[in-house]
Amino acid sequence: MVTKRDREREKGDSSASMAAKAAKGKVWEEERPDTGMDELLAVLGYKVRTSDMPDVAQKLEQLEMAMGTTMEDGITHLGSDTVHYNPSDLSGWVQSMLSELNTASPSSNFDAISNQTAGSSSTTMIDFSNGKQLGDQCKIYNDDSEYDLRAIPGGAIYRSDKESDRGSGIKRMKSSSLEPEFDDSLTVAAAESARPVVLVDSQEAGVRLVHTLMACAEAVQQENLKLADALVKHVGFLAVSQAGAMRKVATYFAEALARRIYKIYPQDSLETYSDILQMHFYETCPYLKFAHFTANQAILEAFAGANRVHVIDFSLKQGMQWPALMQALALRPEGPPAFWLTGIGPPQPDNTDALQQVGWKLAQLAETIGVEFVFRGFVANSLADLDASMLEIRPSEVEAVAVNSVFELHRLLARPGAMEKVLASIKAMKPKIVTFVEQEANHNGAHFLERFNEALHYYSTMFDSLESSGLTQPNGQDLVMSEVYLGRQICNVVACEGTDRVERHETLTQWRTRMDSAGFDPVHLGSNAFKQASMLLALFAGGDGYRVVENDGCLMLGWHTCPLIATSAWQLAGGDS
Amino acid sequence: MVVPLNTWILISNFKLAYNMLRRPDGTFNRHLAEFLDRKVPANANPVDGVFSFDVVIDRGTSLLSRIYRPASADGGVPSIADLEKPVGSDIVPVIIFFHGGSFAHSSANSAIYDTLCRRLVGNCNAVVVSVNYRRAPEDRYPCAYIDGWAALKWVNSRPWLQSPKDSKVHIYLAGDSSGGNIAHNVALRAVESGIEVLGNVLLNPMFGGETRTESEKRLDGKYFVTLQDRDWYWRAFLPEGEDRDHPACNPFGPKGISLEGVKFPRSLVAVAGLDLVQDWQLAYAEGLKRAGLEVNLLYLEKATIGFYLLPNNDHFYTVMDEISNFVSSNLCSVLLLGFLVLPFLSAASGNLSKGAFETASDWEMCEMIAAGVFYALHCQISVKGGAILR
Asked: Which residue of A has its CA nearest to B320?
């Protein structure tokens, strides 16, 4: 019994949404070529081309027959030992399992059933989103050689030891003046992204506080500074009566608004203590650990089979990411490769050689675990000051290169042309893999009010997660320092503009577009990385609300259902470098 | 093919994935399950007239629910202060939804259920609260019911969900598969609690029992579902050592309780004709009827499981219509009144056409009919003759 009313409503709904999208200026998405995907399945998270559907159906049937024949062995194998990638690509996923079953039971007679190439242990997975073959995405990965979670450092690794003279020359870069090149073609329009909101305490006073903050931001946007001034004071008054995360968030936002109103911008000693603050953040909550862990997983997989490896770390800080990777490399069955690490960092205000200190500590660790290790440090005001030629990268036949960046790349968006330059340098480094972790938020919108609202949502959720983690921390100071760390970001997003505003976070969708345009292909993170990241979170006390989510081959960590950071991996477009 | 191609692919994909996740020893590959499940975040920006946001309604158990609301007529983007703005119209149904997944799979933020809940909002002009209850085998009976009850209490105590007409929250419980089972059990818990549940909507509810019914034998393995997997899920959910005649699984079975004289809400039960557990679902509807409770049974002969996940078949539209009618009528007596009216209407019109009002009672009859019809229209009942009550 068909109800016309409902049929029309379905049609009506979709045309209404199309109109709405167009009205909001999202024209660029509609100009993309029609990928011919089944719309109904797309809404449910599965990307299948309409033309591929009969083929996918047939493969599903084949799989069912195959599993019926192999019975429980085949199924258990697929469930526990196989690494799965990118479940949204149904066609690829189903194909990879068919091939998996073929190789697992060569004696069976369903080689004839599958029309695809069988017999090799790796399958090419067709990623239809760019029509190219990615190659070797579905290798059978032995989960026994697991990443040693214990290797993730806490405070213990950084005792103040005697430092042996292991570090090599530290090169200093003179900060060159950048010619502003504003390249319009790579400006990524902020896509109309989802606004995930998780409320934890819905008290009336909290709502009033948020209301006042937003009214204040609106007044600032309209340059009604007298009203803004009155409102920001009112926020301070309301915040006092709040408890917990809401009070802290409100206080930081109020302070940032006040700075904007009175034009008292933060001194550029922002770099001072930033490493220390990040260390506390590292201890208090799992975001950084997750970032390091997932990036390392991708790097480890990319380095498989290489005898010399070279990691270029755009965000060395205290080098917390590397002990675990070095440990994992040391445990390789074939023995560790020679490991070169190039660390990049900003000049220190007190002129200490922070990079060298980090290098020495890592060198010590390398010695204890038997990994041949070389460290190079580069001081640079901006990543855009670097050139691939400065980094002593050896040809790709000799060494496998990984470029890594954690919460660093977005800063380049403050200077026109800087991002493009850095992406070009990365390509010149001929990396086997590029890994970066970024905040999953749109804090780089053109309008202040929009940025303010996004940031308010984002940091409220962040602070809320800290609040839960903080309850189990023996050291209360860690929590406070972590909040200061985040508070600085808030200040930058809200109070600064132009080249000073460096916390220009963008969403994974925006990063994907940018990387795609710049000539990179995605490298998918699989179910093994997902599982281990989830297990890592379970170890983390106070972590009941943290969730790992797979998103088109990338992994995101969020608080409850709100994703907060995203790890993605990339390679040069067009196959192996 | 019995179903459209994309439905076949969707359900077969789930079947394949779920086969991999269930281990013979009764454990569940939760990490892989979470990896494979397609999830969507909440979205406070309205999409197709609906926006959503998540609330942690119990910090202790991390119990989360996703709230879906109709966007305001001007399509404006709700600010964080607007999310819990009091509901507008006179009467706003609040549907507490329990997603399916045989107690083990899916979440409130699974794409299939996020989509379904959004459709319910638009279809019923309702607020939908989708509960992210704890799942088996990690959290067996009665955890899911406890979470459902917590959600019911939470919804009932939100001032912003009260309908302006009577300052009460107009609550309906709904669910598919295991969610249907949870809805029944939460309604049961609510009896005598002072919290009124206006109706239950059960789509392919998950029930069972020790005996093998005719439909189970006939349809085993025929349409995506096997008896073996049904058994696995019950073993994973029910307390250790219990069999399928446990009342959670078999509410009107040997260990069940009678609902006679119990103030249990009226129910809309949709049964798919190609679902192997239909005999249990039909027995459930029978059990409610035997207890004198109002049941609206929708038997969809050619439907398979999951037919309501995609709007590409007639059954989908049928069910959406029925649910919409179900939550827009508040008093069961009005429905019956509508039915009572019809025969009298035809009788009275017969009298009128003869031009005779012979007795005073004829007048009274006319007035009653007029009042009844007027009242039925006022409450937007669409009387479909014999089709509604089977």
From this structure: A6
- The residue among B118 and B355 whose pLDDT is bigger is B118
C-alpha to C-alpha distance for A489 and A251, rounded to whole angstroms: 13
Give contacts of A 378-417 with B, CB under 8 A: none
pLDDT of residue B194: 87
Residue B75 identity (one-letter amino acid): G
Pull the structure tokens for residue A426: 């990365």
* Beta bridge mates, A520: A572
Nearest Cβ partner of B36 from A10, A61, A87? A87
Contact with chain B for residue A64, Cβ under 8 A: yes
Reported as a single tens digit per residue, the pLDDT across B186-214 is 999 999 898 999 999 999 999 999 999 99
Q: What is the DSSP letter of A410?
A: G
- Is A544 touching B (CB cutoff 8 A)? yes
What is the full DSSP assignment across B221-237?
TTSS--HHHHHHHHHHH
Q: What is the pLDDT of residues A417-453, one digit of tens each?
A: 999 999 999 999 999 999 999 999 999 999 999 999 9
* Neighbour-count burial for B87-97, b at 16+ CB within 10 Å, e otherwise: beeebbbbbbb
Does the pLDDT of residue A576 top 90, yes or no? no
**Chain A positions in Cβ-Cβ contact with residue B39 (cut-off 8 Å):** 45, 549, 561
Q: Which residue has the higher pLDDT, B343 or B276?
A: B276
| Range 91-130 of A in CB contact (< 8 A) with B | 94, 97
**What is the value of pTM for the model shown?**
0.81
Closest CA relative to residue A87, chosen from B13, B7, B305, B4? B13
Distance separating alpha carbons of residues A338 and A399, to the nearest angstrom: 9
Tokens of A120: 């090799």
As a whole-number percent, the residues of chain B with pLDDT over 70 amount to 84
Kindly state whether A545 is in contact with chain B, defined as any CB-CB distance less than 8 angstroms. Answer: yes
Choose from A18, A44, A564 for mutation: most chain B CBs within 10 A.
A44
Q: Show residues of chain B in contact with A44, CB under 8 Å.
A: 10, 38, 111-112, 115, 309-310
Distance CA A459, CA A246 (A): 10
| Three-state SS annotation for B139-152 | CCCCHHHHHHHHHH
Phi, psi for residue A563 in degrees, rounded to 5: -70, 135
Question: Is there a contact between A345 and A354 (Cβ–Cβ < 8 Å)?
Answer: yes
Lowest mean per-residue pLDDT among A46-60, A115-129, A463-477: A115-129
Residues 6+ away with beta carbon under 8 Å from A98: A59, A62, A63, A66, A114, A116
CB contact under 8 A, A194 and B41: yes
Distances in Å between the Cα of B120 and the Cα atoms of B125, B322, B327 are 8, 11, 11
Rounded to the nearest angstrom, the minimum Cα separation between B31 and chain A is 5
Chain B touched by A57 (CB under 8 Å): yes
Question: Is the Cβ–Cβ distance between A3 and B321 less than 8 Å?
Answer: yes
Render pLDDT for A543-562 as a digit per residue (tens, 0 to 9): 688 999 999 999 999 999 99
| Nearest-angstrom CA–CA distance, B90 and B73 | 16
